[in-house]
Amino acid sequence: MTNHGYLPHNGSATIQDFITGTIKAFGMGLDLATFLAVYGAVFDGDLLSYSIGGQVSTLLSGLLGEPQGLSGSHNNGNKLPQVSQFIALYELGQDNGDSTDLDVLTRHRVQRFNVSISQNPYYFSAPFSGLIINSAAYTFVYRFMANKTAENPQGILNGETLKLFYAVSGDYPDFTITPGHERFPDNWYKRNPLDYYTIPYLAADALAMQLQHPQFLSVGGNTGKVNSFVGLDPATLRDGVFNAQNLLEGNNAFCFGLVAALQMAPDILSGLFSDITVALGLLFSAVGNATEGLSCPQLKSIDKGQFSQFPGYTGLKPDAEYRA
Ligand SMILES: *[C@@H]1O[C@H](CO)[C@@H](O)[C@H](O)[C@H]1NC(C)=O
Ligand SMILES: *[C@@H]1O[C@H](CO)[C@@H](O)[C@H](O)[C@H]1NC(C)=O
Ligand SMILES: *[C@@H]1O[C@H](CO)[C@@H](O)[C@H](O)[C@H]1NC(C)=O
Ligand SMILES: *[C@@H]1O[C@H](CO)[C@@H](O)[C@H](O)[C@H]1NC(C)=O
Hints:
CATH class of the largest domain: Mainly Alpha
Number of strands: 7
GO molecular function: metal ion binding; peroxidase activity
Structural class: mainly alpha
Strand content: under 5%
Organism: Anthostomella pinea
Family: Belongs to the chloroperoxidase family.
Bound molecules: 2-acetamido-2-deoxy-beta-D-glucopyranose
Radius of gyration: 19 Å
Keywords: Heme, Iron, Metal-binding, Oxidoreductase, Peroxidase
């Protein structure tokens, strides 16, 4: 987006820049664009703005360190795209008639989930990052990058388009990724303004994936060894409001993830701000607005104590929850 002027070229932008830019470039719904922009400014920025990569200095006082930007919050220390993972996704798309659709991305997610549990002793899936952000990371690829046309309003995402968005050059399987060279393809069409990608739309996509593969609903992690995944019972986490059955009803899983983000925020924010009042207020407002179209059940507190058995949580605190 910065390469094409949808965001300032220096990669540092205000909440309003992110909202306007994501709507204009991709057809993100105003509700989703606003929620993500505010969330980014709270956790990765100075409450007004944030950068897409790396630290930027800020005039705001009361920050306990330099804001890290998006690259500091997604996959700490491992933010560069991996060619092997791109190839795995590309191959699944080729096997599907050169079309990387939601089924393909769901298959890719199953593979990545498997690898995480079988290779990462510290794998941890928190309610917000696991139920919402992780889903979005897969659905966004198709919902935003597919080429939408009158004949194919949902869009077609072929391998060439996927390569351009991820700055991949070379012929399969000899791919090279050149970070900074990501671009929109020529003659590429975004979502129709009548069909922008909203929060209820994302919630429905996430639920479809979770119904197909209930492991995507697991909150928990490996306990210090590979293949040691312990899943927590949503009923004990959320005081009986949600359980394994009703988590798959309506927007419950999505609501659970949003509420958990709020519940866990004070821990995280106290590592970022000397006084968390303003940040927390912004977040409450953003989450409140985000739940508006979802008919979420009455919110109660969650039992964070149960997370202490996971080194992937305790090791990363105070910022484990928002790392996707
Ligand atoms: C980035 O560019 C924008 C637009 O030109 C400008 O307003 C902003 O101050 C710049 N930010 C930094 C951190 O340089
Ligand atoms: C990962 O895939 C292997 C091979 O298909 C399978 O045996 C194993 O149960 C899977 N593990 C998880 C955690 O899904
Ligand atoms: C998008 O689809 C249109 C209509 O089929 C086509 O003309 C255009 O080349 C496609 N763009 C890309 C980047 O594939
Ligand atoms: C939530 O919605 C209200 C009413 O539209 C708006 O005034 C407020 O700025 C929104 N909050 C956030 C954080 O976007």
